[in-house]
Amino acid sequence: MTIFSQSVSPCGKFLAAGNNYGQIAIFSSEAKEESKKPVVTFQAHDGPVYCMVSTDRHLLSAGDGEVKAWLWAEILKKGCKELWRRQPPYRTSLEVPEINALLLVPKENSLILAGGDCQLHTMDLETGNFTRALRGHTDYIHCLALRERSPEVLSGGEDGTVRLWG
């Protein structure tokens, strides 16, 4: 098993870890040292869980071509169900690239996702609509960072570039 992603719950008591089998395991920081097993594990995606982020209420996870939301309040219950799923508009219906990076932009209440289609997609978290796509990379995008003061987004990828988006 390979862990590709992790995210801490808003209360700080739980860690979500996403693996190559599409599962998310939830670990408690209050567990005894000898008990390192997850509190709960659930199947989140058909393929690997490449990235995750937490909001004050949700755990967002992404894998092959889509992002899903889970309510933190429901995650610890057995049989946790996804709240919603979204897929960015890809160039062709046959294209299902992996999503390698998620970034929250709190001031805009938006989520930026990037990955195998070499684009950054911005999603409005209130409506679930994708509002823009930024093109410029020529290969997979693997990381995103936010400069909150500007606000500017930086992206880095397999094309060897770091790009700044305003």
UniProtKB/TrEMBL annotation:
WD repeat residue intervals: 134-166
InterPro entries given in the database record: THOC6, WD40/YVTN_repeat-like_dom_sf, WD40_repeat_dom_sf, WD40_rpt
Record bears the keyword ATP-binding: no
SMART domains: WD40 (SM00320)
Keyword annotations from UniProtKB, A to Z: WD repeat
Superkingdom of origin organism: Eukaryota
Pfam families: WD40 (PF00400)
GO BP terms in the entry: mRNA export from nucleus
Single GO cellular component term: transcription export complex
Family: Belongs to the WD repeat THOC6 family.
Protein name: Tho complex subunit 6 homolog
Organism, as annotated: Lynx pardinus (Iberian lynx)
